[in-house]
Amino acid sequence: MTAIAHADGAFRHDLVLHDGPAELVDLMVPFVREGAAAGDHVILLGEPDFVDAIASAVPEALLDMIAERPDERFPARDLHRAQQTLGRLDGSAAGARIVNQMPAMTDQQWLGWRRYEAAANVALARFRAWGKCAHDVAALDPRRLAELRALHPFVQSGADSVPNADFDGVGARVDRFFDVPRHPALDTVPTLSMLAPAAGAARGAVRDLAVRAGLSPTAQESVILATSETVTNGWVHGRPPVVLRAWAGPGRLTVAVSDGGAGPDPLAGMVAQTAQAVSGRGLWLVHLLIPEVHHRRGEDGYTITFSVDSGTAVTAG
Amino acid sequence: MGDLVRAARDYVSEGLDRHERVVFCRLSPDGIRYGDVSDAADVRWGPMPDLPVTVPLTTDPDWRPSQDPVESLGPMVDAALDDGYTGLRVLTDATDLAHDPVSRAAWVRSEHLIDRYARDHALTILCSYDVEDLGDGPVAEVACVHALTGGTPSPFLLHATGGGGLGLAGEVDRASAPALGRALTQVAAAQVPTPRVLDLTELGFVDHSGLVAMHRAAAALGTRLHLVGASPLVTRLVDVLALDALDLGEVS
ipTM of this model? Predict the structure, then answer.
């Protein structure tokens, strides 16, 4: 990784460590101001108060503002949105700067966001853009901090952004992303269990549960699609036995699909796939529609688990 | 086979009750054997050895399944009406046309043209295929272009709609997406109006591979498919997958 900021065709991916929103505003205003002076397009993503504070401090900047609460954020959708935005700017002479105030996250959500950070290095590599992912140090335990340092080629803590010796790209660390504990639902008795279901039978059974759980029509449609795509993947890419389990509660449905294989690439599902792609579209759509997706690779095979509830903003973005 | 004979007898009885001309014909690449059915009790299945060729389906000795079957059926419907019947009801066995893949593809297109013609003419057709003879795959291929089918030989149905469009009903996933792609290619080639419209109102489910199959069929024909009646989710999938041979929304 070169230390030259903003070389043509190179995405620069910085980790910003800060002590809270007030300090983050102070750290980011000069970055946005510099970008504005250089004629860069600035994309600002974070909580409404933060976005407002930057926008009013640098009124001259060409700002693309996305104000979202932490519970509205999810990794694959955010990465797709970044690809779309940068793709639109691709033809213009302007460069792009991205300020991304990362949301607070649970341990489960962290598993998705670290895949996002690794996938950004790949998916955004071709764009002439400089992105800063800002994490509040108060929310980072030593393990998360070490992982974030490994996934960002540059680190800023304080005024300066410097090359990061701990960066280890998309190597062995990423290969172990799916070696995680089982999803907690797997330790409980499922509402539904099917051995070797055809995709159509799996859809029918999950449709019944989704209706019983009282999910909104859109949430029903999304969980049925996700079930169909993951069962199909189990048959096409995995190894027998394909097993479907589901847990239904009021307003919530969790589905797990297992097979005996080694599972997909640990960044699968994060990077946009189009009509020309040979494979990977189904899993990407699952991530685009459903915020809560968990992957696990174990000795007994691979399991993908996803949950929807009535509030899931499944068609947002 | 017992089921089929029962269904065929009901079908014939219904036609006779409505004072339609009821005919049985067996279609094959060599020609068409054809005869009036005047009593439901006469309906058997399998080869009908003494089927009289009273009226040829076509006078063209070079008739092929790819030819527009309405050229032959139209005059037959008119003749039935002229003879005082209320319409024409046909019972066919087209198994022999579905053996060979090339002939089958051409016949699927013909079946669709018949389906379209029958929508607003005094024609009713029951097409039968011998599953044991053909196998499930070929039967699904020909069955999917019929508005109504007995059993579930194909998980989806591609049928004619008013205004010259197409309608898709049932479910499409990875297992049936290739069949949808073939059916669309065969049927859309027969469509005159542009943009070509595909109504998804009755579609219960489609996965990404079904949408990609629609996109590829349209792209292969050098045209675009206009999807109407798509759910919000399907609309979003078409958008994010960048399937640019598919259009969405109302036809202007």
Answer: 0.88
